[in-house]
Amino acid sequence: MRAHDYDQDFRVRARRTRGWGAGLLSLAALLWTWCAVLLLTPYQAERKPDDRHPRECESRLLTHGGTANDGVWRGDWCADERDWPEALAVLGLSVPVAVAGAVMFTVGSVSGRMSAHAEAMRVLDGPAGRPSL
């Protein structure tokens, strides 16, 4: 395999790695969005299946000590509907995905730039740049 062909193959692999990194970062962003929805949006809790008048619940994060957090002591259904462990599990899952995506994106970008730099240096040191003997 000639050097030019190898270099082109290397750049294709670098672009593919960068693409996988961008995909993983996008997946992490979706997980962060899901966590934000779980924590920041109000929701409804049904006391039984097909409840016609479900209980309106405040968001888990932006509450003033109301239905979402201390409802268990008052016999409220809101505290059981959206648990903290679910939101924290989504957030915890997003961390390794984001780290892997950032590493892959960085490796792919740096590899492509280094390949372009090496080719530019080869062109500069080509026949015109070599000293005569």
Explain what this protein looks like in three dimensions.
- By secondary structure, the chain is mainly alpha-helical.
- It is built from 3 helices and 2 strands, in the order αββαα.
- α1 (3-40) packs antiparallel against α3.
- The longest helix has 41 residues, at 84-124.
Terminus-to-terminus distance = 30 Å
| Number of helical stretches of at least 4 residues | 3
The percent range for strand residues is under 5%
Approximate shape = rod-shaped
Largest sheet: spatial strand order: 1-2
Structural Rg: 27 Å
- The low-confidence parts are none
Provide the structure class. mainly alpha
User: What is the residue-mean pLDDT, rounded to a whole number?
Assistant: 81
Q: What is the total tally of β strands?
A: 2
Major sheet size, sense and barrel closure: 2 strands, antiparallel
N-to-C order of helices and strands: HEEHH
- Helix fraction? 55-70%
